[in-house]
Design goal:
Layout (H helix, E strand, L loop, with lengths): L1 H61 L10 H21 L5 H11 L2 H9 L4 H18 L11 H26 L7 H25 L2 H8 L5 H15 L9 H62 L7 H26 L21 H58 L3 H27 L12 E2 H9 L8 E5 L4 E2 L4 H17 L7 E7 L9 E6 L7 H12 L12 H13 L2 E6 L5 E7 L4 E2 L16 E4 L16 H6 L16
Parallel strand pairs: 2-4
Antiparallel strand pairs: 1-3, 2-9, 3-8, 4-5, 5-7, 6-7
Helix pairs in contact: 1-2, 1-5, 1-6, 1-10, 3-5, 5-6, 6-7, 6-10, 9-10, 11-12, 12-13, 14-15, 15-17, 16-17
Amino acid sequence: MIAPVAVVGVLLGIGVDTQIDKAMDASRTAELVRDSEHVTRLINDVEAEHRQALLLSVEQESARPGAALPSTAAYRRTQQDTDEQVTAVRAAFGAGLSKDEARALAYIRSLAVLRDKVERGSVPAATIDPAYAAAVGYLIDGIGLDRFVGTSSSSVTNLLDTVLRADAAHAAFESGVFSAQTRDANALTEYTRAVGAHKLYEEQSARFGRIASPDQVLRLSGIERDAEANGIAAQYAELQIDPGSLQGQTPHELRKAMAAGTRQAEARLTITRTLIDQIAARSDSLSRSALDNALAMLALALVGFTSWLAFSVLVRRSVVRPLAALTGAAQQVVDVAGEELARVEDDESADGTPLQPRPIPVPVRDEIGHLAEAFNQVQVTAAALLERQVLSRRNVAEMFGNVGRRVSNLTSRQLILIDAVEREETDPDVLERMYRIDHIAVRLQRNADSLMLLAGIRDAELEARPTSLVNVIRAGLGQIEGYQRVSLRSETEVTVAPDITDDLTLMLAELLENAVSFSPSDTPVEVVVRPGTDVTSDGGALIEVIDHGLGMSAERLDEENSRLVRRERLDLVPTKVLGLFVVGNLARRSGIRVTLSRTPGGGVTGTVWLPSALLLAVNPAAAPTPAVDATEATVDADPDAEADVGVSADADADAAAERPALPDQEPTPPGPAA
């Protein structure tokens, strides 16, 4: 029975070893492909130096006798770029630099003699062109891609070889066309080199088309589709008609051609580097695929061995029953713990039944018995831990609720005292200060209400009455700072049911607080009340709170909108915008829909939709005079006249009458209470 398993294991081991070799080979190829990108950059630098050498030679030939020699600064810069890239190639390949590539780099160093001649006087293009062309050929051949012929990575190396040679051929073609425009007497020879280079590029491009993907073929063809390439193609076409037509261009014209050639070289280099990255990615994919195959075969071997082992131990059926009992007990702990975790995440769900673990019987005193005893102890410990967590959360919520209730009670008493002082005060300056203190106290009470809300406490107002939506908004304004910047426009007149008046006031206060706090002080905040039928057929009413601040990113908006509808605990998912957490809690509790969106031009717009079930029909005969006309009259919202709505539904009317009224009402001068 063991022999067949051993044979299968050996065969699978051989297969795994083969796949690992393929993965390592593909990984080395990917590294070589990425290193070859430095060679591509070096080729581009060599061609740039080549063109500068030709340009400098023409300028020296065109210089008048006795005149100062042309500047060699540009030519020396290209030499420096080439030498620096040679160093970069050595660093990239490191110890893996092949001997052929090392000889190619040494050849570039040996160009110092030619460079010196070009700097000292005019050198024919027929001398310059072969020297630099040979350097490019040595660089490509030196990479050593022929080492991978016949391996699993040969398809990748063929792609890389084709890309490099196509890039070098087109670079040689560009230099050949440039050389043919000089005053050199061998323009026909230089034109012939351009023809040969272009033919080589077409051959490599056709070869690439046979082995590459359509997207890669299209990208390679981009070398000849940009504006500079079209200009070079036009010059090449003129040369085909008359090889001597462009001979003898002036240095100024050659400098323009030089600039165009530089731009074309950069565009070509970008395309080549992109293709190299794609080829490297393909090699990485081959490596991962081979590694996945190796892992799959290894997993298959492990599964087979495990199955055989499991079959061998089936005779020990006595182990199954204790393990089944352990599994059932573990599942019970998992289920109860899952319910507890869900309850921890959901702040609005009630605490459930405490965990009462079921002890596992220990029929024997062997290893399984010891495990059962240990698991029983784990169950008891887990149950105690969960129970303590529930108790701790309940105590913390009760503590916050007590603090919030105390602050609310103290603030209510403070407001009563402030109202009493306001009734007896006649000095306008003192009254103004009293109103500010009153406003701060109202804001403090709003914070206390939010604290009780977070603690899960809801104090319903027993004497709450139906209130117009405009007055509810003004009550919310009375609980924030900077209400002077808020303008209110109402296009409809609705009345809010008494059981949600307090929640809606607090919700709007939090939205308005955020709008005022997170927008520049010189920008307005708009509140618009519209019929809900403008957006949904369900009716109701829409309230839009529009600010013009910096706004939020799309990701942040999505996060906050999801928080408005998703139940979660503040201690597990903290937020910097605590008001929106309160808004979401109130919205879910009252059945109100709240969404955030971007304001055109910058800022955030908060939209509150009140379903018709939360609104009361307005009785025209008994309805009070509306605070805002339904014909889109815009008013500045001074909420002091309505600040007590958020504190108590039956706030003292006399004190409210003495405070500054909203701008659409006739102001009542301060005076002694009647």
